[in-house]
Design goal:
Arc Repressor Mutant, subunit A; three-stranded antiparallel β-sheet; 5 helices; alpha+beta; about 110 residues; 2 domains; about 15% strand
Length: about 110
C-alpha cells in the first residue's frame, strides 16, 4: 500500500488536490479549475488518489464530490520518520565539517 501512496504523491497536481481537499470537500470541477486541466484529466488524477485510499468520491447525479481521507498518509509519514534520524545525523555532520572548514579558513587569513 505504501508504494501506491507514494505513487499518488509523486505528481504535483495530485499533491495540490490533496492540499486543497484538506480545507474541505470539493467537486471535480473545483479541483480541476485552478490546475487548468480538463475534467477528464482531473478525474484520472483523482482515480490515482482514490486507489491509494487518499480520496473518497461521492456521486450524486452528475455531481462528483471529493473528500480527503488522510489515514493512508500515516504509513508514509512513519516510513519517512524512520529515516529522519539518519538524515539529521548526516546534515549535522555536514554542518560541523563546514563550520570547521570556515574556522580553518578564518585562522589562515589572519
Amino acid at each position: 500500500m505504501l508504494d501506491v501512496v507514494f505513487h499518488a504523491l509523486a505528481h504535483d497536481a495530485r499533491r495540490e488536490m490533496l492540499h486543497r481537499l484538506a480545507a474541505g470537500d470539493l467537486t471535480v470541477g473545483e479541483l480541476a479549475a485552478p490546475l487548468q486541466m480538463s475534467l477528464a484529466a482531473a478525474s484520472k488524477h483523482l482515480k490515482v488518489l482514490e486507489q491509494a485510499g487518499l480520496v473518497r468520491r461521492t456521486v450524486t447525479g452528475r455531481r462528483h464530490v471529493c473528500r480527503l481521507k488522510p489515514e493512508p498518509l500515516s504509513g508514509a509519514v512513519a516510513w519517512l520518520r524512520f529515516y529522519e534520524h539518519f538524515w539529521d545525523e548526516r546534515l549535522n555532520a555536514l554542518q560541523d565539517a563546514v563550520e570547521r572548514a570556515n574556522a580553518f579558513d578564518d585562522e589562515e587569513s589572519q
